[in-house]
Structures are given as C-alpha cells and as structure tokens.
Amino acid sequence: MAEAAVRKRGRGGGGAARRAERSAVSFETARFIERNIPNFEVLTEEALELIEYNAETVLEEIGVNFPDNPLALQRWRDAGADVDGDRVRIPRGLARQLCATAPSSYVQHARNPDRNVVVGGKNLVLAPVYGPPFVRDMAGGRRYATMEDFRKFVKLGYMSKWLHHSGGTVCEPTDVAVNKRHLDMLHAHMTLSDKPFMGSVTEPSRARDSVEMCEVLFGKDFVAENTVMTSLININSPMTFDDVMMGALDVYAQANQACIISPFIVGGAMAPVSVAGTLTQVLAEVLAGIAYSQLCKKGAPVIMGAFVTSIDMNSGAPTFGTPEASHITYGAGQLARRLGLPFRSAGSFCGSKLPDAQAAYETANSLNMGLLSGVNFMLHACGWLEGGLVSSFEKFVMDADQLGALHHFAAGVQVDENAQAMDAIREVEPGGHYLGCAHTQANFKSAFWKSDVLDYKPYETWEDEGGRDTMTLASRRVEKMLADYQQPTMDPATREALGAFVATKKAAEPDSFM
Amino acid sequence: MAEAAVRKRGRGGGGAARRAERSAVSFETARFIERNIPNFEVLTEEALELIEYNAETVLEEIGVNFPDNPLALQRWRDAGADVDGDRVRIPRGLARQLCATAPSSYVQHARNPDRNVVVGGKNLVLAPVYGPPFVRDMAGGRRYATMEDFRKFVKLGYMSKWLHHSGGTVCEPTDVAVNKRHLDMLHAHMTLSDKPFMGSVTEPSRARDSVEMCEVLFGKDFVAENTVMTSLININSPMTFDDVMMGALDVYAQANQACIISPFIVGGAMAPVSVAGTLTQVLAEVLAGIAYSQLCKKGAPVIMGAFVTSIDMNSGAPTFGTPEASHITYGAGQLARRLGLPFRSAGSFCGSKLPDAQAAYETANSLNMGLLSGVNFMLHACGWLEGGLVSSFEKFVMDADQLGALHHFAAGVQVDENAQAMDAIREVEPGGHYLGCAHTQANFKSAFWKSDVLDYKPYETWEDEGGRDTMTLASRRVEKMLADYQQPTMDPATREALGAFVATKKAAEPDSFM
Q1: A125, A348, A458, B52: most buried, per Cβ within 10 A?
Q2: A467 to chain B: which residues are within 8 Å by CB?
Q3: Which chain B residue lies closest to A443 (C-alpha atoms)?
C-alpha cells in the first residue's frame, strides 16, 4: 500500500502545483534501495525467542522510567501498566500488543515527489551523518561547525546520487542560537535540497515549529494527510525516556509524522557487555518506546532504532565497525522483522580522527553489515568521523560514493539470457578475451559499479599527478561539487513564506545559547 | 575425520621428535576459524541449477584447452572425453563425476602441529598476499621486492596472531635467480616460521624440489602419508590449462599434496561482463581442472578456487572490493558447497596505490564477503596493495589486525545464562550504568575484539602524539614486530639438512633470470 502510494506520487499524482515547483536543474538521485537479496541472520529461532522472553521479563519485573512526565505516566496507567513513581512496569505482552498498531512501512514525502521514500519492507533509505558539533576538512582541520558548514553539507547531500535523504542535524551549527538553529537548519534542508528531511527534537516547541514549517512548504492539508518528516527520538539507555524527547515524539505522533525510536547504546556502558544482554535491553526499550508512541497516537509511523556499538575497555572510548556491533545489529534486524516494524541501524561509523584507512575499514564493516542486516533507514550513512564528534567533508563524499556499491550489490544477480552470456562464451572460446566481444560491447556500460572518487589509474599516471591519497581526491571532489551546485527551483511565494516564518519565529524570543 | 586427525596431532600425537623441535619462544596464533554463523547466499536454487547446466554445456560443446600436454590429452581420452587437437570436450556429467573422488576437506600439517589447519567444512584458513613483484613501505616507498623483504614478510606472518598460514610467494624476490628463488622462499617459510606453507608451481621440477624439501623437514614417511603443502594452480582463463601449471599439479597430486585450482578472472577481460556468465565459466573451469587433478591421482586433495574481480571499462584496470566481485564470490561459494569441495576466494584486495581509505574500503568489502561466502582458504588475506603488484608492509599488519574481527564475528552469538546478562540488567536498573557492575567486571576482558593497530585514544592525546594516521601507526608496528621477532626453534640436524639441500640444488645449475 505504501509502495503503491509512492509510485503514484512518483508518476506525478501529487498535484500540479507541486509539479510546477520541481527543480529545473536537478541532480540525479538513485531511487531508494529495494533489496533483491536475502537478509543475513545470526540468531537462531531459539535465541530469538529467549531474547524476546527476557525482554518481556525486563519490562514486567524491572520496568522503564518516564521521569518528569505525568502525562506519559497517566497514559501508561490507563493502558494497564503498573506505575510506581517514574517507573513503569509493563505486563508481559502488553507492549508488543500496543506496537501492533504501528504501520509496517510508510511513505515519507519529499517536496520533489520523485524523491519520496518508502521506509520498511525490503527497502533501504540512506541519510547522512547526524549531530556532530565539529567539522573537519583538509584545508581547515577540525573546528566547531557553523551554519555555513551545515549548508555545505546539505548541498553535498543534494548532489550525492546514492543518498536518498537530506537528513537532519548534518552538523550542529554552533554559531546560531540554540533556541533558533532548528529554524535555520530546516530552512536549509527545505530550500537547498529537494530530498526528504528530519525535524527538530530538542524541544516539543521546536517539533511544533518543524510541523508548521512543513505546512508552509507542503501545504497544511497535505501535511495533515501525509508523513513529510522522519525525526530521531533517542532513548536514554538504560531504559529511561527523557521528557523532552517524549514531548517531541508526542507532537510528531499527533501530526502523523514519523519518528525513529532508538536506544543509544555503547555496550558495556549503557547496556551489558554481552550481545544477547544488549539485544534484550534494546528490545525492551524499543517495545516500551514504540508502545508509548502508539499511546500518543494509534497508527503513528515509527521506526525501531538501534544505535549500538562497543567500547574500548581500556580508554572507555566507543569503538566502531566491530564484530560485536555487527552481531547486535544483525540480531536487532531479526527482532524488528518479527515485530513487523521498519528498522534503523548502522552507518558510516568509525572512531578514527581522520578519513584514513581506519575510518574506511570501520565504515565498510558497518555499511556492509547494515545492508545485509535488513536496515530500512540508515542514518549516518556518510560523513561520520571520530565517533560522531566530527562531520567530515571528505569522508562525506568518500562514503557517499561507497553507497553506490550497496545499491549495486542489493540489486542481486540477474540470470536472464543476456546475463547467462552463453553466446559470449561461445564467441570468445578458450584462450580468447572478452574485451571486444559483442556481449561486452552491449553490456559494459551498466555491468560494473564505478566509483566517482577512488583511483583506478595506472601507477605512473597516478604518480605523475602527485600520488594523491583518497582524502586528497575526496577534497578535490568536495570543492568541485560545491562549485557546481545549483539550487533546486522553488515557487517564489513558498520561498518567501518560509523566510517570513523563520524571521517571525526568530524575532519572537531572545537568543539563547543554553 | 579430518577434524579428528588435526585434533589428535594438536594434542601431541605427531611424535616425540617433532614435539622436541617445537618453538620454545612461540608467538600466539589463533586456531583457524570454525564458523558458528550461516553462509550468505545470493543465488536461488533455480539460478544455481541453470549455471550448473550451462557450465556442463560449455564443457560439452565448447570444451577447454590443454596445450602442449600430450599426457593430459591422453588422460582425458582415456576418461571418455572428446579430444580434438588441444581441445578437450567433456561429456555432460563426466567432469562432476570425476570430481567426486576429491576429499571434501583435508588437514594440512605444519611443523608445529598446533598450527595444523583443516581446510574445508565450516572452516576458514587465512594466508597472506601471494605474488607481488614490488614492495612498499612508508620509509622506502615502492621498489622491486628482494629476498630480504620476503623474509620480513614471513617473520610478520609468523608473529600475526590471526594468520594461520605462512603462505607462499609473499613477494617475488627479484634479486634471486628465477630458477633458484623457490629454494630460498621455501627455506624461509620452513625456518623463520612454524606455520603451514605453500610450494612452488613455476616448473614441475620446482614442485618436486618443494616435495623433497618437505621430506627433509617432516621426514619422508610423514610426507608420503600426509598433506604438508597447499599450492596455487592458476587456470589461464578463459578455459586454458597451461602445461607448466598442469605439470606442477601432477607432481603435487601424485605426492598427495594439495592444490588450489583457480580461475584467474578479471570480469570483462577473461570472462563475460555478467555475474551469471562469469560463474558459468568459473564452474566449467574448476570442474575441468579438478577432474583433471583426479585423473592425475584419485583422491588428491584440492580446493575449488575463484579469483574474480571486475574491471574499470575506461582504463582496463582491474577493480577490487566491488559489488560484482561480491556477487560472483557468494555464488561461487554456493557452487563449491554443491560440489562438496573446499573453496578459496576473497582476500585483502584493493586497487589503491597506498594503504589509505580506498585500500581499506575495498579490503573490508572483500574480507567481509569472504567470511560470509563460506571461503575455506583465503589467500591474500593481508598485505595486498595496488591490484596485487605490491606487497605492503603497513597494509600487511593493518589487514592482519582486521582478521581478528573476522574471528570474533565468526564465533557467532552466545545465549547462555551469562550472555543473557539478566542479573546485570537487574543490578543496573533504568538510569544506571554498566561500567562497574559485576557482569561487566567478570566479562570485559573477553567481551570485545580489540584492535592492536587502530587508534582509540581521546582526540587531545592523539593530537599531542602527532595526529598519526593508520599508515603511520602501522609503520611503527611493523618496526616493533621485526625488532621483537624470535625465530622458532628447530632441530639442528634438520636445519643443517635443509641448508645443505638448498646449497646442493643451487650449485647444480647456473643462475637464470628468465
């Protein structure tokens, strides 16, 4: 059903007004990934049942905390939970039963309907890094992020073929007041790109601002009927549901806007050091969080999130691309499918300070695992550096390039007559070569994924050109992309209304940097 | 059965003499990987059957070439094939039937029986890069490889915990005569390491030398009864079986020594540009090659190889870590399991000129795919650079470190009571943390894989220490490992006999660099 909806809008069913607004100069963007490959599963049926049983035990015996949130406690009481102070103990089976009203997939609409995404099923939607207070590039090194950096990342995301989503806080614009930066960030996503985006979650009032800005962009009626944002609601693991986040979730759920409800876990710190223990806690947390979203509004679209990584027990630093993080993500994917919910996990995770080999090993480990674990929404799919403290310009384009490989792999293997290539094998014969044969001529353009960043040149050419490493090549690509950027067109009245909305909101209260 | 044999020797069943030879100063080496995870499979049953049918059609209608090899042609004629000039056409079903006498797994013995490996089943044996004429390190850049470089790589391999095998031509020692370098290479593997190794294949006479040197090392009777080498026999794709390689295969098969029989394919050049077409050719080639090994000697141990990669159609350069190479490898793994044979593929493949982010993305893609595709013997598991032209010292230790992550991932997920960690979740409660809890204290040492190369330090510390990238950290590690190296002990009589064997052989003919 969700699939039919996006196809319909994709074919231009979304109204003449919005069609007219569409970009005249548009950069190519691949359709979200529709996997034609199986999922990889590490947990047996017995292990899954054990973890599900234990998660219910956690909810029933230990419970979860909803501090400073009388409304949430009342909703839980009404639903049949045992509420004691901030602690909510949920009878076995109740949370899973409440989760059943959440849709198994949903369409997130973009202002360019060709860029709508379907979140769920066999699909994978890729969105950029979220949250870093710092940026890094080759020329400027590491520094606090600004709104100008933010705009550059939105432009790069818009121009990245394999990125389906503009994301949210692609970096934290520290030069704009905390109570106003959500307005500038949303404005950038709405005007500098035409891909789908995320809303603010740092205050319920900012979530409301996000909905209202979407009403300006898409029209009030359209927003009332459709999901136009997917926003990130983190759980304070272990098992604590922050009242600010829950307030933002409530705003979005009431407005039928989607939320990722996501434990944020560094194993050994916010969850047990074991994979099965972490999965138990992750499942308990998402069951409680998603059940609560349905108490806010039955049928509200949500994603089961799992931000999980391991820890270096010597330094306490989170570590990325590790085998334990992979185990947890594969297992969480299995649990999400059994819940019948879209799944968010993985990303371009790394602990490295530079976009070097460490960054790439860790990132490739996580990207591959994300694809094979059945992730439906991959936040942080490009640009993440230094444990999420830094958004890296070079790594953004390096990772975004690798996302093309995921698309090609996910397409699976064709076995039609052309793919069987028996004529080619007959033509070439033993001892020949395929470079010029008819089958190669007919297929070579689409046969292989080709990187836009990596070096395939002969050694001598590469050396003559300065012996550049990947970071240097990526730096050139960032420069070129930003130089080539062209803003997608927008109806002038909409543009003016968005500007006015931001100006009015900003004028209404003094700047705060708290 | 093979498994029982290795365990028996592992427990010291290999004779007192060999036990006495064992290293007094021994560096820790992990046991080969015994996967506790499923294989990932991209091809459907229908696709597999189609490819198998087409491969038989190729063998029957097109056939394969065995040039300059009357003995091979006679063997094929005797087996019932249709021989026309060099061309051998194999009736449908015959090759597969001949392959049936090859064992599904075998033990390769090492002079230290703790380091014996079982090749086949759910196991994965990791061996280093093979064949590059150049080496590269940070201090010396790129240069022709020498015997001194070769020895350094053998030492690094001996000291690498996650590497089970010493390999073969870890780099091509270009400063030693072509007709004598196999003697020095084998001598280095035998004396500088105690891990299993590979024999020479560049002339049948050198294969015989390899067997004879093993007889010196292990004893003639032991070699007659046991496999002590696994050597690499490449097929000249498409579908040509070089007489030199076939001669070496014959020597090894007669001596019950194992060979990898491996198409060497850059898709679009030596095979069709399509995945299904390449798999068809790969299967036809290995069916013919392995059938031929069994015509040499029924029951000779062999591995189905598949060196497959894609091509950059602009430059003609081979490309690595690509999604198409992954499709082919996953498919080849499925085909190997249906044949009931051990499978060799994947490795630390990359096209990059430097051990940078490109190298690491490409390598991680290939290593992960190799693990999940069911590879049993992974040649090139560390140290490969620049499309196989270069053995890199830094990349050797970087990749070897990543192999530890494969071990941890392959161990699968525990779900015993300790792993469930319910006591920990009860102890910590909502809002707490797990850093000091009893379960973490009891488990933290073994909970997470930890890199020995990558940087996990806080940003400020890392910056104070010079802001080193992965290559720089790896360079320091290479220096330290070589400084710490200690040769495994060896019975002096054996050492002397090996030296005498090499000296006698070298003295018997003039140097040739052809």
Answers
A1: A348
A2: 353-354
A3: B273
* A53-82 as b/e: b if 16+ CB within 10 A: ebbbbbbbebbbbbbebeebbebbeebebe
Rounded CA gap, A504 and B287, in Å?
74
Calpha distance B52→B50 (Å, rounded):
5
ipTM of the complex in this document: 0.94
Per-residue pLDDT tens digits for A108-137: 999 999 999 999 999 999 999 999 999 999
Q: Residue A157 in contact with residue A188, Cβ under 8 Å?
A: no
DSSP state of A348: S
Report the alpha-carbon distance of residue B126 to residue B326 in Å, rounded: 18
DSSP state of A6: H
The shortest CB-CB distance from A457 to any of B41, B315, B451 is to B315
Residue A467 CA to residue A460 CA, distance in Å, equals: 9
Whether pTM > 0.90 for this model: the answer is yes
Q: Which two tokens stand for residue B242?
A: 């070089």
Collect all residues of chain B within an 8 Å Cβ-Cβ radius of residue A429: 62, 238-239
C-alpha span between A500 and A508 (Å, rounded): 12
CA-based nearest residue in chain A for residue B330: A413
Rounded-to-integer distance, Cα A252 and Cα A229, Å = 9
Q: How many CA atoms lie within 13 A of B461 on its CB side?
A: 7
How would DSSP label each residue in A96-140? HHHHTTS-SEEEEP-SSGGG-EEEETTEEEE------SEEEETTT
Distance from chain centroid for Cα A66: 26
Report the alpha-carbon distance of residue A155 to residue A383 in Å, rounded: 13
Evaluate whether B281 touches B58 at the Cβ level (below 8 Å): yes
CA geometry: angle A132, A136, A139, nearest 5 deg: 160
SS (H, E, C) B79-118: HCCEEECCEEECCCCHHHHHHCCCCCEEEECCCCHHHCEE
B108 touches B227 (CB < 8 A)? yes
Yes or no, beta carbons of A448 and B360 under 8 Å apart = no
Phi, psi of B438 (to 5 degrees): -60, -40
Count CB pairs under 8 A between chains A and B. 405
What is residue B313's predicted lDDT score, i.e. its pLDDT?
84
Please identify among residues 269-288 of chain A the ones whose CB lies closer than 8 Å to any CB of chain B.
Answer: 269-278, 280-281
Largest CA distance in chain B: 79
Q: What secondary structure letter does DSSP report for B388?
A: G
Cβ neighbour number for residue A27 with a 10 Å cutoff: 17
Q: What is the tens place of the pLDDT at every residue in B412-434? A: 999 999 999 999 999 999 999 99
The two structure tokens encoding residue B490: 């060896």
pLDDT digits (tens, 9 = 90+) for A181-200: 999 999 999 999 999 999 99
Residues 6+ apart with CB under 8 A from B385: B132, B136, B350, B352, B353, B354, B355, B359, B391, B392, B395
Q: In 3D, which of A262, A260, A250 has the Cα closest to residue A297? A: A250
- Of B273, B425, B430, nearest to A443 by CB-CB distance is B273
CB contact under 8 A, B409 and A323: yes
Positions of chain A with pLDDT under 70: 1-26
Question: What's residue A7's pLDDT?
Answer: 39
> Among residues B40, B36, B103, B117, which one has the least CA distance to residue B406?
B36
Residues in CB range of A12: below 8 A, 6 or more apart: A19, A113
Phi (first) and psi of residue A116, to 5 degrees? -60, 150
User: For A280, which residue in chain B has the nearest alpha carbon?
Assistant: B420
* pLDDT lower than 70: segments of chain B: 1-26
A438 touches chain B (CB under 8 A): no
Within an 8 Å CB–CB cutoff, is residue A363 touching chain B? yes
